[in-house]
Amino acid sequence: MINKRRKANHMYLCVCRQKNGELRKILSPCDICQERLYYWGNDVKCAITNDNNDIIFKSLNELQPYYWRK
């Protein structure tokens, strides 16, 4: 039996905050998280922030243009 990967239309968000709960930051997924997310397809969207702390969603393809399994 062949195990086919299912395509998923998901977005990934990693949030960090200070102990006082005031400041929240959106963190880009680490390499291990990106590797796990690739299981669902290279078009999975990940939240990142720019210099103005605006939230931007980018696909794994955009974050890792030279991914080793391509």
Write the layout of secondary structure elements.
Layout: E1 11-12, E2 14-17, E3 24-27, H1 31-37, E4 45-49, E5 55-59, H2 60-63
Parallel strand pairs: 1-4
Antiparallel strand pairs: 2-3, 4-5
Task: Report on this structure.
This protein has 70 residues and is an alpha+beta fold. The chain has one domain (11-61). The chain is built from 2 helices and 5 strands. The strands form 2 sheets. Strands 1-4-5 form a 3-stranded mixed β-sheet. 9% of the residues are buried. The model has no long low-confidence stretch (mean pLDDT 76).
Give a short overview.
With 70 residues, the protein is of the alpha+beta class. It is built from two helices and five strands; from the N terminus they run E-E-E-H-E-E-H.
Features:
single chain, 70 residues, alpha+beta, 3-stranded mixed beta sheet, two-stranded antiparallel sheet
**Taking all residues together, what is the mean pLDDT?**
76
Order of helices and strands: EEEHEEH
Q: What class, by secondary structure content?
A: alpha+beta
Low-confidence runs (pLDDT<50, min 5 residues)?
none
Q: What separation lies between the terminal Cα atoms?
A: 24 Å
Largest sheet: 3 strands, mixed
Helix content: 10-25%
Strand content range: 25-35%
Q: Give the number of DSSP strands.
A: 5
Rg (C-alpha, Å): 14 Å
Number of domains: 1
Query: Can you tell me the overall shape?
Result: elongated
- What's the helix count? 2
Strands of the largest sheet, in order across it? 1-4-5
